[in-house]
Write a structure and sequence with these properties.
Length: about 200
Amino acid sequence: MSIRAVVFDIGGVLEITPDTGVTQKWENLLHLKQGELDERMASVWRDGSLGNCSEEQVQQGLRDIIGMDQEQVDAFWHDLWEEYLGVLNTPLADYFNSLRPFYQTAILSNSFVGARSREQEHYHFAEITDLIIYSHEVGIAKPSQRIFVLLCERLGLQPEEIIFLDDVEKHVISARSIGIHAILFKDNAQAIEDINACLYTPDQ
């Protein structure tokens, strides 16, 4: 069956997002133990990734659970989004954009409430792809098979007609389990070579 769509993850793929030490910085500032901030905020982080709360409710959680004042919340929020957004992986984004209009393209991302507007402001993803599925907007996150089924439904395609690129192995395994041609991202050259190998076979 011919490939008709190519789908990319965002963080670690279209965005280069190294750990900038935000959590450790704030644990030091607030005199928390290592890992304590994420441990105490775990349910809020999960709700934010599935769209079960607003940005305002996340910030309220920082005040109520961690004990931040509003000035600290504002500074932490800035640091958090700076790390989240990283920098654009320009060569890969250019390659991704070049696939249109020959193939449908889509983005499938485990995300956080507020991500769409910020990523659009910084990187204009809506202009380089046909479809964006964010976990916080659909209430499902990778590696659940349900989000890959949803992807197929929204593209109007069979799994075998889709290539999916992600930097997390368990997400790749889940996508493959329903028949999607999933590729594990390691670097730009490898990803492009592996995608092209799927696209430009004799039956394409």
